[in-house]
Amino acid sequence: MDYVDNEIYTYMTSNKMLAISDRLNLASVENYATIHAQHKDDKDASGRRIRSTFGILANDFSRGKGNLAVKAEANISPSEARFIMSQIENGIEKGVDKKGIFSSEKIFASGNGGQVRKLTIGWQTKDNKGEERKSPWVVSIENGTGTIKRTSSGGSFCEKNSYKRETHVLIYFTYQDIYKMFVSVIAFLNVWEMAYGCKLLKEGHALLQQKKQERAANPPKNPPAPPVEKQKSTEQPNMSLEKARAVIISIGTHKGKTMGQLESENKNGLKWYVDMYKGNDENLRQAAAAILSEK
User: Is the pTM of this model over 0.85?
Assistant: First the structure.
C-alpha cells in the first residue's frame, strides 16, 4: 500500500457514497489554548493559513461513474461535529422542522468571486407521497459559486441572488447509520485531542512562562512615568489678603462661601486646601495659603 487513507467513516449505498475524512490541525503554540487551528496566524510550514476541520465528500453515481458522477464537498469544525452528535443523541422525534438540525454555508473567496459550500443535516419522516421513510435522516450538500462581499469586520458573505448551484447530492440515512457515522467521528476527535493536544498544552504553558520571565527580566526601556503629584508650594503666596478672602469656594461642603467666611467659621479648614486639596483650582490653594500666612 503506497498511500495513507485519512477517511474516518464511509457510508455506501447502491448508488451513493458519503465519506468523512481527517483534516484536523493543531493551533500554533502561541494560540495553544484553542487546541485546534482557527486563528489567522495558524499557518503551515509554507505560510498558508490552516484550519482544523473534518472534510465531507458526497458522490452520486445514479447517472454513472467517472465524469458522470455528481460530487459535492463540505467541511465542519470540531465544535460543529460535536453539536451534530448531540442532536442525534437527543433522539429527535417525528415532526421536527424539515429545515434540519444543522445548516452551514462556507465561503472560499477569490477576488470578488468564490466557491460556496452548503451543508444541511435534517430529519424528514415522510417522502413526497406522504409515506413514512425508512431512512428519515437526510444530508444535503450543495456546491456553487457566487459574488463574494466583505464585511467591515473582515468576514465574507455571498451577495444576494448571486449564488449559482453547480452540484447537489442528497443522501438518506437510517437513525442507526447516521449515529454510527458521527460516533466514529467524535471517537476519532477525542483520541486526536488527547494524542496531540497534551503536547501542545505543555509547549504552550512553557512558552507562556518563558515570556513572563522575559518581561520581568527585561522591563520596557521607557516605562510610563508614574503620575506626578502636585507639590506643595514653598513659595510665599502672591495673592493679597483682601483678594484671598474674597475667593469663592467652588467645591465641597463650604461651596458658595468665601474664603473669608471659612476663616471666620473654621480657620483649620483652610489648612485642608493647602495640604490636602488635589483639584485644579489654584486660586483656592493660593487664597488659603495667603490667609494662613497672615501674622
Answer: no
